[in-house]
User: What shape does this take?
Amino acid sequence: MTRRRQLWYYPLFQIPFILFTGCVLLALLFSLLNWGRPSVAVVLSLDLSGSTFSNHPLQFNQPQTVMAQQVRAAKLYLQRNQRDLANPNEVMIHGFGCNVVFLTPRFETNSDLLLTQLDQALNRSDLLAQVDPSATNLSGAIAMATQQLQLIPNRCRELLLITDGEASVDASVVAHARQQRVKINAIVIGDHAPQLAAATQATGGQYRSAPVAILEELVGQTFFEGFNSNARWPIFWGGMAVICFMWLLVLPLDRWILQGWFHLPMNLAGQIASGQWQFLSFSGDFRAGPLYQPVEEQA
Assistant: This one.
């Protein structure tokens, strides 16, 4: 009596099974343990132009203004950076109106120090004059952030621009940011800003147009988690698992379905299952061998 071995005795089944299991485990480990999370440098650039505090000097850095909401959102990002990350982002905070000013003097991973520096900068009596809130200089903010980020090696470079007004964006500034691998990300509080949206798209960043009520959620959750996501690795290992699984199906498809249900010849079933058709140029006959050979045993 002739009897075929079980499928798991064949290398064509064993090797894809081992690789499939390994890829699934790696996808789970990278997802659950957050392996492969990128090292990130971030510039938070806050709009301090007059429209963020009702164009009245006495309202500068006062509660209930859009400016105050931006500051609270930036502080939430810093708190999560300290609390949730074993390897915190290097963060620097800028403010801009007509001019760009440093609200923190350098990149830091210590969020407590950054929070202290931010409060000190916002309480400076000359800050309003330095910013000059008469205009919204988006191009200047992007250019300054790019200049600072290009000094940070071996980290993903992210700019998060928060503004409530639409202004023009110089194409050369966006091109330079792209050349320096700086991703421009933007939150526009209010109407859609097409030039800023185009800048984020050109550099691979994210763009959101949203009311001020959800600003903290966007900065502290959506963008923070986006900057610190290792999603590429679980997706990569998941894709590899799918490829291995397709090869794992070759023998079951060949034996159980094509030969078992459809009663196809062994050589034709093997060709269909593996997706590899072999032709001889002269005879035109199918000459591909079967995927496995039966083992003959005496009953």
Notes: The two ends are 6 Å apart (CA to CA).
